[in-house]
Amino acid sequence: MHQDAAKAHHEKPRVSTRGVVLTLLGVVIGSAGYYASWRFQTPIGTLGGIAGLALCVIGTSHAHNS
User: Fold this and answer.
1) Is residue 15 part of a domain?
2) Residue 7 maps to a domain
3) Considering the entire predicted model, what is its pTM?
4) What is the pLDDT tens value at each position of the chain, 66 positions in all?
5) Could you tell me if residue 47 is inside a domain?
6) Where are the transmembrane segments (predicted)?
7) Residue 29 is part of which domain span?
8) Concatenated DSSP letters of the chain
């Protein structure tokens, strides 16, 4: 029984491509949004930053649920 637990511990978790893409898209959108918010003082940039952050959270969640 102890050996089964050791085997399960060494298995690498699977990562979904969809989750990785969502996370990277969130980073790009969030970075652009927050930059626009800081540089041009626009509320649209802040909303873009928040949307990017949400995509990162959703992407990370999907990446580990495969």
Assistant:
1) no
2) no
3) 0.73
4) 555 555 556 677 778 899 999 999 999 999 999 999 999 999 999 999 999 999 999 998 887 765
5) yes
6) 20-38, 44-63
7) 21-64
8) -HHHHHHHHHPPPP--HHHHHHHHHHHHHHHHHHHHHHHH--HHHHHHHHHHHHHHHHHHHHHT--
